[in-house]
């Protein structure tokens, strides 16, 4: 779906297109209600504002759709496919991934939820370094970082969801 199609589709289809970006009803409703958008940048700005702040309940709901970093999401849902693509650089058999898995367990024990990071564009070593750094956070610091990572993921997914079809059709022109 491109931006023009997103702007003109029915509300239910627009919300369905947004849900794989992040499963937070308030955010989805705000973006759907703001249509039409003059540009993808305008939509991104509204999306960023709507994500400030995500509530604790919204973060918890969104985290329920995210696998542990280093683990491949199962299934054929849009969220699972996006997650697999975002974690493509993480080799499940490497020593770094083993260390990430150990860190995941320590993180979950400390904070009570999965470690979430924008994996797209990061190497496994960078992910491990961030995991180790964030294990030193207070619960309040980590809540803020987790919400920020969710925002980053949602915005990247949103741009990808509405840019990819236009880029693919331009490449075939």
Automatic annotation (TrEMBL):
Q: Which SUPFAM superfamilies match?
A: UraD-Like (SSF158694)
Q: Which reaction does it catalyse?
A: 5-hydroxy-2-oxo-4-ureido-2,5-dihydro-1H-imidazole-5-carboxylate + H(+) = (S)-allantoin + CO2
Provide ranges: composition bias, Basic and acidic residues. Answer: 70-84
State the EC number(s).
Answer: 4.1.1.97
Quote the Pfam families the UniProt record gives.
OHCU_decarbox
Q: What class of enzyme is it?
A: lyase
Keyword Lyase set for record? yes
* This protein's UniProt keywords: Decarboxylase, Lyase, Purine metabolism
Region annotation (Disordered) maps to 70-95
Pathway entry: Purine metabolism; urate degradation; (S)-allantoin from urate: step 3/3
Among its keywords, does the record have Lyase? Answer: yes
Which residues does UniProt assign to the signal peptide? none
- Where does the record place the Oxo-4-hydroxy-4-carboxy-5-ureidoimidazoline decarboxylase domain? 7-159
Checking InterPro entries in the record gives: OHCU_decarboxylase, OHCU_decarboxylase-2, OHCU_decarboxylase_sf
Protein name per its UniProtKB record? 2-oxo-4-hydroxy-4-carboxy-5-ureidoimidazoline decarboxylase
Origin organism of this chain? Answer: Zhihengliuella alba
What gene does the UniProt entry assign to this protein?
Answer: uraD
């Amino acid at each position: 779906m491109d931006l023009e199609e997103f702007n003109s589709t029915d509300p239910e289809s627009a919300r369905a297109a947004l849900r794989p970006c992040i499963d937070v009803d308030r955010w989805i409703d705000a973006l759907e209600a703001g249509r039409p958008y003059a540009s993808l940048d305008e939509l991104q700005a509204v999306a960023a504002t709507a994500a400030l702040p995500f509530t604790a309940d919204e973060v918890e709901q969104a985290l329920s759709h995210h696998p542990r970093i280093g683990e491949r999401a199962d299934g054929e849902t849009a969220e699972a496919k996006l997650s697999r693509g975002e974690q493509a650089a993480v080799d499940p058999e490497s020593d770094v991934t083993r260390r990430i898995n150990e860190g995941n367990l320590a993180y979950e024990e400390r904070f009570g939820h999965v470690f979430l990071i924008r994996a797209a564009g990061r190497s496994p070593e960078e992910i491990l370094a961030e995991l180790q750094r964030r294990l030193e956070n207070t619960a309040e610091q980590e809540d803020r970082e987790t919400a920020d990572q969710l925002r980053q993921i949602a915005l990247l997914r949103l741009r990808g969801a509405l840019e990819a079809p236009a880029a693919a059709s331009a490449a075939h022109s």
